Amino acid sequence: MFLDEIGEIPRETQVELLRVLQEKEIRRVGGSRVIPVDVRIIAATNKDLLQETVEGRFREDLYYRLDVLDLKLPPLRERGDDVKILGLHLFRQLPGGKDPIMQSQFLYLLEQVGPYQWYGNIRELQNFVERANILMRNAGASSVTVSDILRRRAEPAPEPCQETESRDRRAIEAALHNHPGSMADAARSLGCSRQTLWRKMKKYGIQR
Q: What is residue 104's predicted lDDT score, i.e. its pLDDT?
């Protein structure tokens, strides 16, 4: 079972989900019969759930019930040529998308985008592809430019180093608090090695 945007569910729903994961049973709305379930859970979020637990927005017991194996997916902006591969795959599914001339012009447009953050990841790329397809079919493939398609937005200012370090320190302190007897478990919950954890503790002056 895939649970998307797990970090957005309200705390009262988190209680119910935790009960299902612990007891492996559910009850239909308005029903009285308990139904056993046997599922494997994959949950996704773009939030830092560990920090969410520190700030009280996500239940700590549910976090550790879900975070058994952690898989970090890089954003589209860090995936290099994947933008062209995915963009062309999406383009081919649209009307006229299999036409070689249309495909060639579309790839040219993607190259003209240049360095771009793709804040909306795949959804933003899909939006770009669909807008490009419509404009190319109605205005002529060669007359469409990147500025006709891409809704660029101002780049955010770089995050101050001090703010980044403050968030990093809070996460380390939370991990040590949650795993008082095991540096290995604390490091694992942070997604780093024990050596990295020790180094950061020394850097921030954090005592075990």
A: 92
